[in-house]
Amino acid sequence: MPESISMEDYNKKIKRVIVTKEEIDEAIRKAGKEISDSYDGRPILLVSILKGAFVFMADLCRAITVPCEIGFMCAKSYYEGTVSSGLVKITMDLEQDISNYHVVIVEDIIDTGRTLNDVVKLLKTRNPLSLRVVTLLDKPSRRIVPFNADIALFTIPDYFVIGYGLDCAEKYRNLPYIAEYNEKGE
Ligand code: IMP
Ligand code: MG
Q: pLDDT of 149-161, one tens digit each?
């Protein structure tokens, strides 16, 4: 059950802003242009991985100036030790048949690389016309499964971050910027 939290405790956990709203806006404007320019009117399906990517998706799709459709999926990966089982559990699947689309996966952050590695493998089995990955944040130093996004808006060090869709225990997704999370809250 959700518990009440004092605003003081809530705010103390926001250690410092890492990426400002203005920096996010500017990077999304550029990514939107890059995506708009590269598909040339061909059918695009933006696929957002929930929940973390919902804010990024909302802003990115409005920075795209060519026709595009949107879809959502919820994915969780399961692993034994550090090796990917290759099993991604789709807790909510796309409603579209993607075989007639150029798919652009829209993700919040690539950390170990496991989730996206599995999602990409799965979506490829459905034969999209093409498949690219755009991520808001990339933490390459944390990678366990080799995986590179086609577009990464910001590369960050190994901080746990919150805001702009990213959560800690489901909170802070509504911050308009990306901040480092202060575990101790001191
Ligand atoms: P991966 O499979 O390890 O690449 O994990 C990706 C998922 O872990 C992301 O989609 C996020 O939901 C979550 N995640 C990884 N790092 C962070 C973080 O710093 N803050 C919040 N969520 C994170
Ligand atoms: Mg996520």
A: 999 999 999 999 9
108 in contact with ligand 1, CB cutoff 6 A? yes
Given the residues 37, 93, 97, 111, the one annotated as active site: 111
CA distance 62 to 99: 24
Q: How far apart are CA 76 and CA 4, in angstroms?
A: 28
Q: Is the CB of 109 under 6 A from ligand 1?
A: yes
Does pLDDT of 27 surpass 80?
yes
* Number of other CB atoms surrounding residue 26 within 10 Å: 12
pLDDT one-digit tens code per residue, 74-99: 987 665 544 445 567 889 999 999 99
pTM of the entire predicted model: 0.94
Alpha helices in the chain (DSSP H): 7-12, 21-39, 54-62, 114-124
Minimum CA distance residue for ligand 1 atom 8: 111
Residues 6+ apart with CB under 8 A from 97: 126
Mutate to test the pocket of ligand 1, among 50, 111, 112 (most ligand atoms within 8 A of CB): 111
The whole-angstrom separation of Cα 51 and Cα 53 is 6
Q: In this structure, which ligand is nearest to the CA of 88?
A: 1
